[in-house]
Design brief:
Elements (H helix, E strand, L loop, with lengths): L4 H4 L3 E5 L3 H13 L4 E5 L24 E4 L3 H14 L4 E3 L14 H12 L4 E2 L6 E3 L4 E3 L12 E6 L2 H8 L7 E6 L8 H9 L4 E8 L5 H14 L3 E5 L14 H4 L2 H12 L2 E2 L3 H13 L8 E5 L2 H11 L11 H11 L9 E2 L8 H10 L7 E5 L11 H17 L3 E5 L7 H9 L3 E4 L1 H11 L16 E6 L2 H11 L6 E4 L5 H8 L3 E5 L11 E5 L2 H9 L6 E5 L6 E10 L3 E8 L4 H4 L2 E5 L4 H10 L3 H4 L10 H18 L3 E9 L4 E3 L2 E8 L2
Parallel strand pairs: 1-2, 1-3, 3-4, 4-5, 8-9, 8-10, 10-11, 11-12, 13-14, 13-15, 15-16, 16-17
Antiparallel strand pairs: 6-7, 6-9, 18-28, 19-22, 20-21, 20-22, 23-24, 23-26, 24-25, 26-27, 26-28
Helix pairs in contact: 3-4, 6-7, 10-16, 12-13, 13-14
């Protein structure tokens, strides 16, 4: 048993505080059917929610398994200290005014430190959170209404927003909720540790995370591995921005690889499916609960309307979802069932010729489920139950269930609108093992995401030590560091006296590039001149340049493509590698891909293939292709340096890429400063 099991599966509950919030916790526990002991602590009141209070924590009959602390922030610290001394199983700290409010209260951080010290080894959730709901065992340490129902199995949801968590419990889509947990400040216990505890329950089928910021990268990596070991998928809806210590004015990488790109890259590496909205969040969890991960986003769409068939095709356009064409065997079977008028295709409009004929509907749905399909989708919108009847719609549901059994593959019932899938219908379908989906757009996204969370290898991620930005190396220093790792760099000489430029230029050989040192964005500042052919032009360029120290380099042959290779430490997501269109086109094209380190050769090649300029890399319209192995070598050399020295940022821009070479024409390194 891990340290949180007692808290989330209690046999005794204590509520500290007699205000409205504490009283509501007692009522919610009674309403949900908690059958263990419920105690309340208050120093003066004679009765709270029908219970007689104990005057202090010390007077409780025994150490409670779970406690809801519903008093002010100062009294919360005292209560936690008292509970820890008697060996309580854990506590929900409801009060606010801790580290989340440092701008409003001067002592927020200090008080949160006192709270942690008072807790000792006792688990605490929060502060500044609502608590949790356990629908499997009937536990509601929750000071408000909620919309969930008891269940024998379901998904777990962990949210960093209590209000969002409340809203999610009010869903009417039939999704069974096993746990809903809010985490607040995560002062001691983070969402990753909680997630591991919830996933360990065999009645939990999948985990959904509503994430505003990742506070512990290593813990999230461990959670992802636990999920893979258990064969239980995780999805996430991430909002907010994580802090970027490196300003975009210093480098392009920091601005391109912002927190959103870092989060996307991290979730992809960890096998955590990322969704874009609360609706997609719920629909994806529902799909994973009923069906589990999909092998591929290949579906068979069936409807009795050409409009619905067109909507499915249009809504899937631009996504990964595909509609495999019908085989001849399928066509023969469907033609016998549907007659000569129906156009046979996927998506299929089977018209209304077989509407109300359960046998024909069953045969049609089963015939659409070829080996190339991972999921069937029958579009069915119910009429309003308060104004209409729907006997024939029940025949379609029966047909879907029978066809699913015949085909041996899952078939979903999809309502094009959320409102046209009654909750009781959705719940009945889930009880029969049939997936109800609500909303075409949300369903398409859920299908996509469900193909990205299947079992795989160990989610390897480089978890760096705590770092802040250190020294910014000069271009010469940065290139020297990277050259020692194997990056090709131009021949160069640093010149501090303008009179020495001619000799240096003759030693390197014309044509040359002249750069002014000590300037962040040299091109914009007029501190780069290329294609210098002789001493006269060299001296003129130096005299016009806003610099007193210079870097003189050999001129690299005209490249086929200029790339950016950058690695920046995202405090929340680790080292994020960015591959992008480089040089002066970086901001204009906004063409980039991001991955978390480490990466192997194939991952680099796959990343390059995702760029919009990928055709140029392959040799566009008869041009020479670039040397991709040289590009991979440069990336791996940067990665090697990052792994050895843990810098804060590395950028090569541009990497000049030719048919047999890739040379770093400019480089920037910001060292990392540890702050353990």
């Amino acid at each position: 048993m891990d340290r949180l099991t007692r808290l989330f599966n209690p046999r005794s509950i204590a509520v500290i505080g007699g205000g409205a919030w504490g009283s509501e916790v007692i009522r919610q526990c009674q309403k949900i059917g908690f059958d263990g002991d419920i105690w309340v602590v208050h120093p003066t009141k004679a009765e709270i929610a029908g219970l007689t209070p104990f005057r202090s924590v010390q007077e409780l009959p025994q150490a409670p398994d779970a406690v809801f602390i519903g008093v002010n922030r100062f009294a919360t610290v005292d209560a936690v200290r008292a509970l820890s001394k008697i060996g309580a199983g854990g506590a929900i700290c409801f009060a606010s005014g801790f580290s989340e409010a440092v701008h409003e209260v001067s002592d927020g951080d200090d008080l949160q430190a006192d709270l942690l010290a008072s807790a000792g080894d006792m688990p605490i959730i929060g502060p500044n959170c609502y608590g949790f709901l356990n629908y499997l065992d009937g536990v509601a340490l929750w000071p408000d209404q909620h919309g969930g129902l008891p269940t024998d199995s379901g998904v777990a949801i962990i949210a960093q927003s209590s209000n969002v968590a409340i809203n999610l419990t009010m869903q009417a889509r039939g999704l069974p909720l096993a746990y809903v947990v809010t985490v607040g400040n995560q002062a001691q216990t983070g969402l990753s540790e909680i997630g591991k505890t919830l996933l360990s329950n065999p009645k939990v089928t999948a985990l959904g995370l509503y994430v505003e910021g990742i506070d512990d990268l290593g813990a999230l990596v461990s959670l992802a591995q636990t999920a893979r070991d258990l064969g239980k998928p995780i999805i996430a809806l991430k909002t907010g921005q994580s802090e970027q210590a490196q300003q975009a004015a210093i480098s392009h990488t920091a601005s391109i690889a912002g927190s959103d790109a870092g989060a996307a890259a991290l979730f992809e590496r960890l096998g955590i499916g990322r969704v874009s909205s609360l609706s997609a969040f719920l629909e994806t969890l529902k799909l994973l609960h009923v069906v589990g991960p999909l092998d591929a986003p290949h579906i068979a769409s069936m409807s009795c309307s050409g409009g619905e068939a067109s909507l499915m095709a249009d809504m899937a356009h631009g996504s990964d979802v595909r509609f495999p064409p019908l085989t001849q065997s399928q066509r023969d079977t469907l033609r016998d069932m549907l007659g000569p008028i129906v156009t046979l295709s996927n998506p299929l409009d089977y018209h209304t010729f077989i509407w109300g004929n359960e046998t024909a509907l069953t045969a049609t749905f089963a015939a659409m489920m070829s080996d190339a399909v991972s999921l069937g989708v029958v579009i069915l919108d119910f009429p309003r139950p308060d104004r209409c009847t729907a006997p024939d719609w029940e025949l379609v549901l029966n047909a879907v269930s029978s066809a699913q059994e015949t085909a041996g593959k899952p078939i979903a019932v999809l309502s094009s609108l959320v409102e046209t899938m009654p909750e009781d219908v959705a719940r009945r379908l889930i009880a029969k093992g049939v997936l109800p989906l609500c909303g075409i757009v949300e369903a398409i996204e859920a299908i996509e995401v469900a193909t990205r969370v299947g079992p795989g290898g160990k989610p390897l991620v480089f978890v760096p030590p705590p770092l802040s930005a250190g020294q910014v190396l000069s271009e010469v220093e940065a290139k020297g560091v990277l050259a020692r790792q194997g990056v090709d760099v131009p021949k160069s000489v640093r010149v501090s006296d303008i009179e020495d430029l001619s000799i240096a230029g003759q030693n390197i050989g014309y044509p040359l590039v002249l750069k002014g040192e000590g300037i962040a964005h040299k091109t914009e500042a007029g501190a780069v001149v290329v294609g210098i052919e002789d001493d006269v032009a060299l001296l003129a360029a130096a005299q016009a340049m806003p610099a007193k120290q210079f870097l003189l380099e050999e001129m690299i042959a005209e490249p086929i493509v200029e790339l950016l290779i950058g690695v920046v430490l995202d405090p929340a997501h680790g080292y994020v590698l960015t591959l992008a269109a480089g040089g002066t086109l970086t901001e204009i094209l906004e063409d980039s891909v991001s991955m978390v380190l480490p990466v192997d050769r194939q991952q680099v090649l796959d990343g390059l293939a995702k760029l919009r300029i990928a055709p140029l890399l392959d040799g566009y319209r008869g041009a020479y292709p670039v040397d991709k192995d040289a590009i991979v070598g440069a990336v791996q050399a940067v990665q090697s340096y990052v792994g050895q020295e843990t810098p804060f940022e590395v950028e090569i821009n541009p990497l000049m890429c030719g048919p047999a070479w890739a040379v770093a024409a400019d480089a920037l390194i910001t060292t990392g400063e540890r702050h353990d």
